Amino acid sequence: MATETFKLYLIKPSHYDDEGYVIQWLRSAIPSNTLAALHGLAADCAARKALGDDVQIEIVGLDETNTRIRPEKIAASIKAAGRGLVCLVGVQSNQFPHALDLARRFRAYGVDVAMGGFHVSGCIAMLPELPADLLEAQALGISLFAGEAEGRLDTVLRDAYAGKLQKLYNFMKDLPGIESTPAPLLPSYVIQRTSGAVTSFDAGRGCPFQCSFCTIINVQGRKSRFRSADDVEAIIRANLAQGISSFFITDDNLARNKNWEPIFDRLIAMRENGVRMSFVIQVDTLSHRIPRFIEKASKAGVRRVFIGLENINPENLIAAKKKQNRIAEYREMLLAWKMAGCYTTAGYITGFPADTPESIARDIEIIKRELPLDMLEFFFLTPLPGSEDHQRLLKAGVWMDPDMNKYDLEHAVTAHPKMSKAQWEGAYKAAWAAYYTPEHMETVMRRSAATGNSPGKVMFLLIWFWACINLENIHPLEGGYFRRKVRRDRRPGMALENPLAFYPKYVAGVVVNHLRVAAMALRLARLRRRLKKSPDARTYMDLALTPVEDSDLDDLEMFNNSASSRAAGDHAKKMLAKHHDHELAKQQEKVG
């Protein structure tokens, strides 16, 4: 029997909002795949007695987006156990300042701390030397981990157990395979703190594309690595055993996973045998071109899909090296997903070189009118550490905001060639306001009913997005249910508010926000009831829902609002003409 205990805390940190409070909810939205992956690897280490037969590894997983982190209590727990380690996992650039503040408190209690994630790995992958914030972390005695932990976690745990953590573990040049590795798995007590009890896992890592704003290609590599259908089934069944049946597959682009078809076939077979489960996935804008992909995704239980639309201006897409996005394909692709019964969410980046406040506003109206899209998420073009954009600006000596907390894709952190900071920020806010009007949300619900999908489910998503932006000033990806604020958990350097001012303001904000949500929900619920009762709901039609025609390239404003969009339309016409000529030649051969 084990005579010693090693206490391992795996913590996924949140980050500060603009007022300096940690973004935290009673129920958060998106579960952390990194936390699931590290928890699965740690559980494997514990099962294998990686620290010896007489040492029990106790693992505690905490997601700060829904759990308050108390360093003093965690330090006391580790001291009582005798030995232990705090791992701050999956730390993104915007989370690094808060993660460092947490680590500083742990170190003050004498607790060993290791930190990894996209900020550490991205900086090491793309910069010639460690930036100041990573050097500060090392000066505090924090061990940095770059790369992926499969096959490497044992080494870190043994070093921590021996009191000999290295300053840096750098595995960026040796990315491991992930097939048949320990499954990403969170215990149910963590998953139940998310809205809808959703968990996450990756079926693959890496991406073959070259988008200049992306960190994934430089952190996870451009050579993709995959789990097998057996691996995926094992992950799902392990979660089903603890009552979890909703999953977010975090692959940046599942459509480029070489195992997508055997995985979908396995999921379809499971569903046909009575297993109930649903999925959210991420794909590119050409996924509809892959034979059977959308059809099998729907049969496998995919109910929501995130699509990297990014922009409808071809000039901007080329500037970002996102040449795989073809605006001529957007309507066909979105209609294919809608007809398969899936809700669509697309990302839209503001701040590309050709953008102006007027062009952004125009593009949003075109999207509303011409594309059958459900949710649209807006972002600032952000030079994230680990991206080509960040590396290029740094080499050129271009100013970038030194506060990493702002690198959350919701703040302007560098200059724009055509817009002032105020104009850019105004255009970003105006984009949210323009898309999530009550009138357009009603249109989205009508389109959902017309295509045989549930207007009630899309109503919930619309309210979620609207409320996060309009009531909490927080991006929907960081949203949740019932915002929690702890007066004393404010960013160091910002004054603690007087309790007599803080608590009345907090309570009043909660009450007012719930009333505003209720008012919007009531308005949309009335429409939902009418749609359920109306025999004409399925016959609703607007421009976005009309079948794709060759004449779209001449008639739609998407192809006629700029020189680059007209060029894209002309190119699509040429490709279409070649296709028609090819088909005609094939028919003539058959006749001959």
Secondary structure: elements and pairs:
Elements: E1 4-12, E2 24-28, H1 33-47, E3 55-63, H2 71-81, E4 82-88, H3 96-108, E5 113-116, H4 118-126, H5 132-139, E6 143-146, H6 153-161, E7 168-170, H7 188-191, E8 198-201, E9 204-205, H8 216-219, E10 225-226, H9 229-240, E11 246-249, H10 260-272, E12 278-283, H11 293-300, E13 302-310, H12 314-319, H13 330-339, E14 343-350, H14 357-370, E15 375-380, H15 388-396, H16 421-435, H17 438-450, H18 455-471, E16 480-484, H19 499-533, H20 552-555, H21 563-591
Parallel strand pairs: 1-3, 1-4, 4-5, 5-6, 6-7, 8-11, 11-12, 12-13, 13-14, 14-15
Antiparallel strand pairs: 2-16, 9-10
Helix pairs in contact: 9-10, 10-11, 14-16, 17-18, 17-19, 18-19
Could you walk me through the main structural features you see in this protein, from its secondary elements to its overall organization?
The chain has 592 residues and is an alpha/beta fold. Helix 14 (357-370) links the parallel strand 14 (343-350) and strand 15 (375-380). The protein has 21 helices and 16 strands. The strands form 4 sheets. The chain has a 6-stranded parallel beta sheet with strand order 3-1-4-5-6-7, sandwiched between helices. The chain is globular.
Keywords for this entry:
592 residues; 21 helices; six-stranded parallel β-sheet
In short:
Helices cover 44% and strands 15% of the residues. The chain is an alpha/beta fold.
